[in-house]
Amino acid sequence: MSTSTLTTNDIVIATRAAENFTRLYYTTYDSPTRISDLPNFYRPNSALTWNGRPFEGVEGVRELVSGIPVTKHEVQSFDCHPIPGSQPPSLLVTASGTVIHGKGPAGNPPKTPRNVVHGHPRVFSQTFVLAPDPNAPPTKSGEVAKYYITADAFRFVG
Fold first, then answer.
1. What are the angstrom distances between the C-alpha of 79 and each of 5, 15, 89, 125?
2. Is there a cis peptide before residue 109, judged by omega within 30 degrees of 0?
3. Which of 3, 9, 81, 112 would suit a FRET pair with 19, their CA atoms being 20 to 30 Å apart?
4. How far apart are CA 75 and CA 88, in angstroms?
């Protein structure tokens, strides 16, 4: 059996980083400035898959977000696993919850079918691989590192 190179402190810091990341990411995604701000979480070589559709890098994220209506995410759970091999470690973050596209059910015209995506909550699952940002200022012991998204997979569930 091999020994892990991760310490308890690594896991605590990684969990704090994931908590900060999920809060900032979904707040940004749901903001009026999301088209300009959300791509800042990514880099030119980042990979994004949205319900099976691939997008690449900052411009791909901008293209995706520009083509969907406003959103309201409610993250119900997230989990984080540090990936050994670098210090600080890369992170595997999973998040799940519900998302509403558009203005919510009240914003739909009367007699809108229930299976229409716009306006109704949909369950989602999203998985991120976060890497430490080499361009960020160095962190001190116990501080949360700055991360960017190297890979992102979003999927509606059900």
1. 20, 8, 15, 11
2. no
3. 3
4. 25
**Is the distance from CB of 65 to CB of 48 less than 8 angstroms?**
no
Tokens of 9: 């402190």
Task: Report residue 77 as tokens.
Answer: 């759970």
Q: Which helix (H) or strand (E) holds 24?
A: helix 8-29
Lowest-confidence pick of 2-11, 72-81, 104-113: 104-113
What's residue 113's pLDDT?
65
Q: What pTM did the predictor assign?
A: 0.84
**Cross-strand partners of 25:** none
Q: Give the tens place of pLDDT for each residue, 87-141.
A: 778 999 999 999 998 876 666 666 666 666 667 789 999 999 999 888 877 666 6
Which is more confidently placed, 87 or 49? 49
- CB of 16 within 8 A of CB of 119? no
Q: Contacts from 24-28 at CB under 8 Å and sequence distance 24+?
A: 26/73, 26/75, 26/95
C-alpha 25/C-alpha 40 separation (Å) is 10
